Amino acid sequence: MIEYSKATLEEYGYKDRRFLKKVYRISTKVLVVAVIFLMYLPVLTIALQSFNSSSELSSFGSFTFKWYGQIFRHPMLASAIQNTAIVSLTSTILATVLGTFIAMGIYYLFPKAKQQILLLNNIPILNADIVTGISLMLVFSLLLPVFPYIFGLPTLILAHLFFTLPYVILSVLPKLGEVDPNLMDAAADLGLKPIKSLVKVMVPAVKAGIFSGMLLAFTMSVDDFVVSYYTTGNGYDNLSIWIYGSIGRKSLTPSVYAFSTLLTLGTALVLLAVNLLSKRKVRNK
User: Fold this and answer.
1) CATH among 3.30.300.160, 1.10.10.10, 1.10.260.40, 1.10.3720.10 for 74-253
2) Would you put residue 60 in left (φ > 0), alpha (ψ -120 to 50) or beta?
3) What is the CA radius of gyration of the chain?
4) How many C-beta neighbours within 10 Å does residue 41 have?
5) 3-state secondary structure string across 137-157
6) What's the 3-state SS for the chain?
7) How far is Cα 284 from Cα 41, in angstroms, rounded to an integer?
8) 0.90 cut: is pTM over it?
9) Cβ neighbours of residue 185 closer than 8 Å, sequence gap 6 or more
10) What would the pLDDT profile of 1-33 be if each residue is shown by its tens digit?
């Protein structure tokens, strides 16, 4: 009986790439960790500085909570926080209410008209902030002969409403697609008027999209600087504008770091609570 030699896998051209695959997996994990670390490094730096007894960034004196107690004792910082809260809350409420009903109107349009309206809706999102800010400033300037003191709180609210409204619309529209299209007809058959049908039937059905749009609008409003910088006036500064001016004057108080840390923690807790509630609802179903 003739015995033939057995060919090895290498002779068939096989190459063992297990080592390369292992290196690839490790490199991917290291890269992901590095990206996450770089993303949150500024947040961690600000949080660390909020506990620094020294007001100098280059040195760490000792651990202290004194900057947290002085957040609202600094008159200019407290005024900037108050202005930010007024502008953000007002524009968010207006954007949430208007965006919800506008999204419902867009949803029931014909496909071609819906596409055209959505293209217009996406312009503030895709547009550069500096272009939006300058454009709104020019528009508000045309109203100066009629409203000489329009720049300030009114222009900030209108400007923030302009760029937060599209986010609410885009958050509500997908949820409308998940709703039974016969709900409105069923409500009408039961004797509800159209307005009551919207408020009592459609709004509860898309409340998840409304809430996510509201959070997104509030976050965008609080975080905005460029549009606010070009549309404010008469000494009305929100937090971002005040921080920018304080850095230029080299008079930035470390209490800003404390407030930023509290704002970050508050946002994280809200998101955590929303995720936990959504998971609990899924389990109950």
Assistant:
1) 1.10.3720.10
2) beta
3) 27
4) 10
5) HHHHHHCCCCCCCCCCHHHHH
6) CCCCCCCCCCCCCCCCCHHHHHHHHHHHHHHHHHHHHHHHHHHHHHHHHCCECCCCCCCCCCECCHHHHCCCCCHHHHHHHHHHHHHHHHHHHHHHHHHHHHHHHHHCCCHHHHHHHHHHHHHHHHCCHHHHHHHHHHHHHHCCCCCCCCCCHHHHHHHHHHHHHHHHHHHHHHHHHCCCCCHHHHHHHCCCCHHHHHHHHHHHHCHHHHHHHHHHHHHHHHHCCHHHHHHCCCCCCCHHHHHHHHHHHCCCCCHHHHHHHHHHHHHHHHHHHHHHHHHHHHHHC
7) 38
8) no
9) none
10) 566 566 565 555 556 667 778 888 899 999 999
Which of 241, 230, 221 has the alpha carbon at shortest distance from 138? 230
Contact, 255 vs 67, CB < 8 A? yes
| DSSP summary character for residue 202 | I
Measured distance CA(171)–CA(212) in Å, rounded: 7
- Tell me the per-residue pLDDT of 172-200, one tens digit each, with 9 for 90 and over: 998 888 887 777 778 777 777 878 888 88
What average pLDDT does the chain have? 85
pLDDT in tens, 229-261: 999 988 888 999 998 888 877 778 888 889 889
Cβ burial, residue 210 (10 Å; 0-12/13-18/19+): buried
The ranges assigned to domains in the chain are: 74-253
Q: What CA–CA distance (Å, rounded) separates 235 from 238?
A: 10
Question: Environment class of residue 103 by beta-carbon count within 10 Å: exposed (0-12), middle (13-18) or buried (19+)?
Answer: buried
